[in-house]
Amino acid sequence: MAMFTIADLHLSFGTDKPMDIFAGWENYAENLAENWRKVVQDDDHVVIPGDVSWAMKIEDALDDFKFIDNLPGMKYIIKGNHDYWWSTASKMQKFFDENGLRTINILHNNAFKANDYALCGSRGWFVEDEGEKKIILREAMRLDASIIAGKKLSENIIVFLHYPPISISRDVDEIVEVLVKHEIKECYYGHIHGKGCNYAYEGIKHGVAFKLISADYLKFNPHKIL
């Protein structure tokens, strides 16, 4: 059983929000499905850290979820800044159950065991001004709760975030402090697209290996972790 991750699918089968108007996104859903099926097997695990669907309501995201559910592997999704359809975990799980979506799990204030690893994560936030400190502190608490839950499942923790916790110019201190406190060794994040990828940090800092895994940056190829 292998493990993969890819963020920012930005699916829009049920709403009028085409991504192929942007350079590099032409036929992206078809390319994603083709690349996914080349490497992911039914018993593998795939983490999708945010911006899953452009839908405003979960009902409008059904075709997007069906697309994901029909791909191989067990999937774990995290909230992104564009996931406006996001609701409570119980409501989302009920929606998945009612629509026969059996391979999609919600990673939010919790953790999942995959192979010998615990999958942990949160949306995160990238602070732009002091007024957003409350948001970042809340996300740091959610990440902390997820990692604590993960430690009950395995001593091997992998963290996934939607927002980058670090860039080449600065850190999101509150998030990084959580990673360092728990001695996290691997952290994968999305959100960054296009020219913004030039400012993304990839490498080891504070003892943590950081990797950008937004879909267009990966050329719509799921990134293999294990």
Structural summary, described in words:
The chain is of the alpha/beta class. It has one domain (3-221): Metallo-dependent phosphatases (Purple Acid Phosphatase, chain A, domain 2, 4-Layer Sandwich). The chain is 26% helix and 20% strand. The protein contains five helices and eleven strands; from the N terminus they run βαβαβαβββαβαββββ. The chain has helices spanning 28-39, 62-69, 89-98, 133-151, 173-181, and strands at 3-5, 45-49, 74-78, 104-106, 111-114, 117-122, 157-161, 186-189, 203-205, 208-212, 223-224. The chain has a six-stranded mixed sheet with strand order 5-6-7-8-10-9, covered by helices on one side. A five-stranded mixed sheet has the order 4-3-2-1-11. Strand 7, helix 5 and strand 8 (186-189) form a beta-alpha-beta unit. Helix 4 packs parallel to helix 5 (173-181). The chain starts with a strand and ends with a strand.
CATH topology: Purple Acid Phosphatase, chain A, domain 2
Counting structural domains, the number is 1
* Strand element count: 11
Could you say which structural class the secondary elements and strand pairing correspond to?
Answer: alpha/beta
Distance between the termini: 8 Å
- Name the average pLDDT: 94
- State the shape: globular
Q: Which regions contain 5 or more consecutive residues with pLDDT less than 50?
A: none
The CATH top-level class label? Alpha Beta
- SSE pattern, N- to C-terminal: EHEHEHEEEHEHEEEE
